[in-house]
Specification:
Layout (H helix, E strand, L loop, with lengths): L1 H17 L2 E8 L4 E5 L7 E4 L2 H18 L13 E6 L11
Parallel strand pairs: 1-4
Antiparallel strand pairs: 1-2, 2-3
Length: about 100
């Protein structure tokens, strides 16, 4: 009975994580790289010069970190949905009119 409850809990935890992963990518203008982090995947911190370079690294590291954090089956296959939200912050000087 306890083993079944643990399995159900683990399945629910995996289902919740697997459908709610958001990775935030911030442009670091000083370093010239995208910096990716996720509160949904503890330990996920990556840097890459472009989004084209960043996305494959995200896809490689997420399953590894999820296994390491105990929320991914070590011997099972699972479909993972995630979103990358990119953010670039800049300042804009606007001249006065008139």
């Amino acid at each position: 009975m306890v083993a079944e409850l643990v399995r159900l809990f683990e399945d629910a935890k995996l289902a919740d994580v697997a459908h709610n992963i958001t990775v935030t990518a911030d442009w670091d203008a000083e370093a010239g790289v995208w910096v990716a982090m996720s509160e949904d995947v503890p330990g996920l911190v990556l840097e890459a010069a472009s989004m084209d370079d960043l996305v494959p690294e995200i896809e490689l590291i997420i399953p590894q970190l999820m296994r390491a954090n105990g929320v991914w089956p070590s011997n099972g296959e699972q479909t993972l949905d995630y979103a990358v939200v990119a953010r670039i912050e800049r300042s804009l000087q606007v001249a006065a009119v008139g």
